[in-house]
Amino acid sequence: QVQLVESGGGLVQPGGSLRLSCAASGNIRSINAMGWYRQVPGKQRELVAGITSAGSTNYAEPVKGRFTISRDNAKKTVYLQMNTLKPEDTAVYYCNADIVSSVWTAAYEYTYWGPGTQVTVSS
Fold it and tell me: Which residues lie below 8 Å from residue 91, measured CB to CB, with a gap of 6+?
């Protein structure tokens, strides 16, 4: 009933930039927090950046000053601008969102995940 679809991943050289997008669709009454996570094989998924519905942001230390998270509430989309990319940024990037949906006259909140998009930083 709710889908998150990421786009924008790919191969980039060290020092380059990529912009990831994640669009939500389906039974959506409102979207609270949204975020980006990443995971490499053999490691736990880790938070990269998060943004509240009011626009407050937080970042993991390794990406501070290089990555910027933003959202367009009208488009139900969250973005991650990644600059000065490093080989250690290579990972599968996942977006997630806390989405409120309608069920008859009630509302419930659930955390949804996108399927992930590969980002590879290599020369």
Answer: 38, 39, 40, 119
What is the strand order of the sheet 18-26 is part of?
A: 2-7, 18-26, 77-82, 67-72
Q: Which band of pLDDT confidence, cut at 50, 70 and 90, is reported for residue 1?
A: confident
How far apart (Å, rounded) are the C-alpha atoms in residues 33 and 51?
Answer: 6
The pLDDT tens digits of the residues spanning 68-96 come to 999 999 999 999 999 999 999 999 999 99
CA-nearest of 4, 33, 18 to 89 is 18
Q: In Å, what is the CA distance from 17 to each residue of 1, 8, 58, 111?
A: 33, 11, 20, 28
